[in-house]
Design a protein that fits this description.
The protein contains 29 helices and 5 strands.
Length: 1031
């Protein structure tokens, strides 16, 4: 298995660079190929795969590996088409650019080889002579075939591969069309006609398969106008390329493809495209000698060209009008098709062909020569055509001159032959001229000589006719029923038949009629008789004519009378039609808008679903990748453990056992095998050690006497060897000493010369050394001086820089001190503003305290008055019960002054004990006397308020409004309390603490002061609750 490098992109790229550095491009490409085609690469991000693919296609192009690049592009398309289409476009453009560059380099190399000739004077070389005997190609052709053709083939395969990869994929649609245009340009640049035919066939198959694969995801939608527009542009490029390569069959097929797309498209095509369409049709029909549809195509092309190009010059308009009229005049009157008329199959084929061509031209009916000429005349073309073409039209279609028609037309034909654009119409015009000559002769003559006709039909070479050609032309016209001529070869004459009962000819344009033929006279004799009798009746009885005139005038009068009404009806009908048209257009627009909205919603929904699917797919792939990695790691561990077991224990495991076993099982197996082998090995070692021990003891016991004998023998041998070696060493030492003494005697003779040469050499070396030392010291001194100067310069610069930095530092410190002063002043201003605000607040608080003090004084005064009144009322309390009605009746008498303070309280019930009035007075005393079930009093300085009861509305009249008898209805745990500047409700009440509901706010009065409002008809909480509310 090849190593896997996709964990990081740098790994494989570094490996490829290393292999390329040592010249192993094949191995580098194989490594990239394994990475790209690996299943793990599907889960890699595009940022990792894109540089790998760029390197991959580069190596594939270098090594011309078309099959490998195809496999890699297929894999990368599946990876990146859902996430990054631009990445695919980058890879494909890179590959095509590299291939085109290789082709250009190969062409340049081939041209250089063709020019690089060793001997310019030698026209033929032995090699070229031998090659010419077996091949008809020239040297340049052979060079191109050897050098350029392989790269051309690779580039063509690259285009085919890319088109096959991107076919029928809506996400790659723009890239598909751009590559198609590049492929057309390739065929045009290198004139590859065979490849162009194959390319057209490939594109046609792809278009046919669009509907077949429409159910697949990312399929091409032909209902999308943008898609159809792109297909039209590519087909028009195909048509232009086919016309430039003169492949007219492919051009016609391209026209059929364009017509299919135009009929499918809901959007009207651009006029420029249609002009190009009809221009190419003119060329195709001209090549196929179909002059009828050639003229019709020219007619449509000229109309569109004049409508879209308003800046045509007079010469251009004249030339276009001349071509339109001349193409209509050049339509043969007698067709020269090879099929024989009269056969049903041939007629059906001809009708089908006319229908198909008319459909391609966008015509509702088959065009005719007469209709095209009338249409040209209706457009006032005669006023714009060239004079010679206008004369040609008059000679062929207006004038009647059978004896001079050819002489008049020959100068015009010569002028037309000189114009390269009009010369192609000269030959078909000669057939039209010959047809007109025979038609006009048939109206004047009954029998003419063939030589006479040959003299009349005399044309300059190469358009002259001989007797055989004219005879063949006449027979063809007679066979088709468009001429009625007999040839008498005995008398060499032409006989124009005068069949009195011949049917009228609807298939031929007769031209100018000089006189009626006998067949026409026989066919119209009754109508002519009727006209004559009608004239006789008018001459005999003039009243008939007068009655006819009177009836005519009455009809005209009725017509004039009803014309206004018909005009109004026509206008009303026009308005209705316009309104219906507007309604229909509005409805169509609404439907289109609705369809567009539905498409947009469907596209959004599809995009959302696709996005969700892609996310789920990425998540699934990530999980699968992690699982694969884990499985791979486990397999590697299991394999490694199995190898260790095999190497250490000798146990060979089968591959399926390794796959089925996990790591734990293999580890247990390994440990058990190792323990078993260890135990067996220890037992074996014990046995071996015992056996070796016994053996060694036996050996040593047996060898004791042998060792003594061997020792004695060894002593003798060592002594003999020592004596021999000593003698040899003494002899060698003496010989070496004698040799050295002889050498010393020889060298003693040259000792003086050696000493002299040595002293001389030492003096020279010393002089050189002194000179070098002196030069080095001077250089060192110079360098030292330069470095000192440089150092001093640098030091001065450093001093200047330090001074600048110190100045900058001082400036920054001053700026910092200024900012600190400003900040300090700002803080002081804020502190002063805050102090002023607090002073104002303290002053306001002081005023509020003063207001609270005055309020407390008023409340204390009111309390004193209330206590005095209450003491006076309590002295007059009765012990009997007084009904409410009696109390009401007695209240005016008992009250003092008529106010609520003067009303006497009602008597308490008989079954209740009336509490005695407090001697001390005041509400605190009364509250203390009401019992232990009431809330405790507020102590001095506690800051709390107690919950108190109040009398109900039933005892409001005439009762004590400030004292409450025991046992009455009260709510001991209701009401409100105020604690530390807020309200508190206990057991269902409210509580306000530390600032109340709106936040911290200073209390309006001290905690020892309280304000009480009694119950009554006013205020919230007054009613049947029976509780007194304190605020």
């Amino acid at each position: 298995m090849a190593p896997f490098y996709t964990v990081k992109s740098d790994n494989v790229l570094k490996r490829v660079e290393e292999l390329q550095a040592v010249g192993q491009d094949e191995a580098a490409l194989q490594a990239l190929h394994d990475v790209v085609l690996s299943k793990r690469s599907r889960s890699n991000p595009i940022t990792v795969m894109e540089p790998i693919m760029l390197k991959y296609v580069e190596l594939c192009v270098e090594l011309k590996k078309g099959k490998m690049v195809k496999e890699g592009l297929h894999q990368y398309r599946n990876i990146a088409q859902n996430t990054s289409v631009n990445s695919i476009e980058t890879i494909i453009n890179k590959m095509l650019t590299l291939a085109e560059e290789k082709v250009a380099e190969a062409r340049a190399k081939a041209d250089k080889i063709a020019v690089d000739v060793e001997d310019l004077e030698a026209s033929e070389t032995p090699e070229s002579i031998m090659l010419s005997t077996v091949s008809g190609d020239q040297s340049k052709d052979r060079t191109d075939r050897a050098v350029v053709t392989p790269w051309l083939k690779f580039l063509w395969e690259a285009y085919r591969t890319v088109l096959d990869i991107m076919r029928n994929n809506s996400r790659l649609e723009s890239l598909y069309n751009s590559v198609t245009l590049k492929a057309f340009q390739f065929c045009l640049t290198y004139e590859r006609k065979t490849e162009f035919r194959r390319l057209c066939e490939i594109l046609r198959n792809h278009f046919v398969n669009v509907a077949k694969y429409s159910h697949q995801p990312h399929a091409v939608n032909l209902n999308d106008p943008e898609t159809l527009q792109q297909y039209l542009e590519s087909r028009f490029a195909q048509l232009n390329a086919a016309a430039e390569l003169e492949l007219w069959q492919e051009a016609f097929k391209s026209v059929e493809d364009i017509h299919t797309l135009l009929t499918t498209s809901k959007r009207p095509p651009k006029p420029v495209m249609m002009a190009n369409y009809y221009e190419k049709l003119t060329k195709i029909f001209m090549v196929s000698d179909d002059y009828l549809f050639h003229s019709a195509a020219w007619n449509r092309f000229s109309a569109i060209e004049r409508s879209i190009n308003k800046n045509l010059t007079e010469d251009q308009q004249s030339h276009m009008a001349s071509v339109v009229l001349l193409s209509a005049l050049a339509i043969p009157i007698i067709t020269t098709t090879k099929t024989r008329p009269g056969y049903v199959e041939a007629d059906e084929y001809r009708v089908q062909k006319l229908n198909s061509l008319s459909m391609l031209m966008g015509l509702n009916a088959h065009p005719t020569r007469t209709g095209l000429l009338k249409e040209a005349l209706n457009k006032n073309i005669l006023s714009r055509v060239r004079p010679e073409i206008r004369d040609l039209y008059n000679i062929l279609e207006v004038q009647f001159h059978p004896l001079s028609i050819c002489k008049k037309i020959n100068p015009i034909m010569i002028k037309l032959s000189e114009d390269k654009d009009l010369a192609k119409y000269v030959r078909p015009l000669h057939q039209v001229i010959l047809t007109r000559l025979l038609q006009q002769l048939s109206q004047v003559y009954t029998t003419v000589k063939l030589d006479f006709v040959l003299n009349l039909a005399s044309f300059p070479a190469p358009f002259n006719y001989d007797a055989a050609t004219i005879e063949k032309f006449i027979m063809n016209g007679c066979k088709r029923g468009e001429l009625n001529i007999r040839i008498d070869h005995a008398s060499q004459s032409l006989i124009f038949e005068t069949d009195l009962f011949a049917p009228p000819k609807d298939t031929v344009t007769e031209g100018i009629q000089l006189q009626s033929s006998p067949a026409d006279l026989m066919r119209t004799q009754l109508s002519r008789l009727g006209v004559s009798l009608h004239a006789v009746v008018q001459m005999i009885d003039p009243s008939v004519k007068e009655n006819a005139e009177k009836a005519k005038q009455e009809v005209v009068q009725r017509a004039l009378t009803g014309a206004e009404e018909e005009h109004k009806q026509a206008l009303a009908r026009k308005v209705v039609i316009e309104r219906r048209k507007e309604i229909i257009e509005t409805e169509i627009a609404r439907k289109e808008k609705l369809i567009a909205q539905e498409k947009a919603a469907a596209a959004a929904k599809k995009a959302e679903a696709e996005k969700k699917r892609v996310e789920e797919e990425l998540k699934r792939r990530e999980e699968e990748r992690i699982k694969r990695i884990q499985d791979e790691v486990q397999r590697d561990q299991a394999k490694r453990i199995a190898e260790e077991i095999s190497s250490k224990t000798g146990l060979q495991l089968k591959p399926e056992e390794i796959e089925q076993s996990d790591v734990t099982t293999l580890l247990n197996l390994k440990v058990s095998r190792l323990q078993t082998e260890q135990k067996e090995l220890s037992d074996r070692l014990k046995q071996i050690s015992k056996r070796i021990d016994h053996t060694e003891r036996a050996y040593r016991k047996e060898e004791i006497p042998l060792l003594e004998k061997d020792y004695e023998q060894q002593q003798k041998t060592d002594k003999a060897f020592y004596e021999a070696a000593k003698k040899a060493e003494l002899a060698a030492s003496r010989a070496k000493f004698e040799e050295n003494m002889k050498l010393k005697a020889r060298l003693q003779r040259i000792k003086g010369d050696y000493t002299t040469f040595k002293s001389k050499l030492e003096q020279e070396r010393k002089a050189e050394t002194d000179a070098k030392r002196k030069a080095a010291e001077e250089a060192i001194a110079k360098e030292k001086a330069e470095r000192i100067a440089l150092w001093r310069e640098k030091r001065e610069q450093m001093i200047k820089m330090r001074e600048q930095e110190e100045a900058e530092q001082r400036r920054r410190e001053e700026e910092e001190r200024r900012r600190e002063a400003e900040e300090r002043e700002r803080k002081e201003a804020e502190a002063r503003a805050r102090a002023e605000k607090e002073a104002r607040y303290a002053e306001e608080q002081k005023k509020l305290d003063e207001i609270a003090r005055k309020q407390r004084e008023k409340e204390e005064e009111i309390e004193r008055k209330l206590q005095a009144e209450k003491a006076a009322i309590a002295a007059n309390v009765k012990s009997t019960y007084t009904p409410p009605g009696a109390r009401r009746s007695q209240s005016p008498a008992t009250t003092t002054g008529g106010t609520w303070r003067g009303r006497a309280p009602a008597a308490a019930p008989a079954d209740r004990d009336v509490p005695a009035p407090a001697t001390g007075g005041g509400w605190r005393t009364r509250e203390a006397a009401r019992g232990s079930d009431r809330a405790p009093e507020r102590t001095e300085g506690s800051g709390t308020w107690r919950s108190v009861s109040r009398p109900t509305n039933e005892r409001r009249e005439g009762s004590d409004r400030f004292a409450r008898p025991e046992g009455g209805s009260r709510r001991p745990e209701g009401g409100f309390e105020r604690r530390e500047g807020g309200f508190e409700r206990r057991e269902g009440g409210f509580e306000r603490r530390e600032g109340g509901f709106g936040g911290d706010r200073a209390p309006r009065r001290d905690g020892d002061n309280e304000r009480r409002t009694t119950s009554g008809a006013r205020g919230a909480g007054a009613g049947a609750s029976g509780n007194e509310r304190r605020w």
